Amino acid sequence: MLVVATVAFAILAVEVEDLLHAVLCLWLMCVSLAGLFWLLGAPYVAVFQLIVYAGAVIVLFIAAIMLTVRRKN
Questions:
Q1: What whole-number distance in Å separates Cα of residue 58 and Cα of residue 28?
Q2: Global pTM?
Q3: CATH number, domain at 16?
Q4: 37 lies in which domain range?
Q5: Is 17 among the domain residues?
Q6: Cβ atoms 41, 49 nearer than 8 A
């Protein structure tokens, strides 16, 4: 079930029109991937995934999105 959620969030991260929603889907994909790592018996990799990717990288993406000017078409 977690594999299906990971793949679904990865596809949504690419296909969603709104950039903020795409980043949130990417964050959910990173969190579910960390859950997969935990279930596979790699807790160090899971914690690293949560701290580095789901934490720091996504925060940088959201900050970059919020600092750029959006044009409405």
A1: 10
A2: 0.85
A3: 1.20.120.1200
A4: 2-67
A5: yes
A6: no
The number of distinct structural domains making up the chain is 1
> Does residue 49 sit within a domain?
yes
DSSP string, the chain: -HHHHHHHHHHHHHH-SSHHHHHHHHHHHHHHHHHHHHHTT-HHHHHHIIIIIIIIIHHHHHHHHHHSPP---
**Distance from C-alpha of 73 to C-alpha of 69, rounded to nearest angstrom:** 13
31-56 per-position pLDDT tens digit = 999 999 999 999 999 999 999 988 88
pLDDT at position 73 is 66
- Is 71 a residue whose pLDDT tops 80? no
Quote the CA–CA distance of 11 and 9 in Å, as a whole number: 5
- CB-side exposure of 28: number of CA atoms within 13 Å? 19
Residue whose tokens read 């990971």: 6
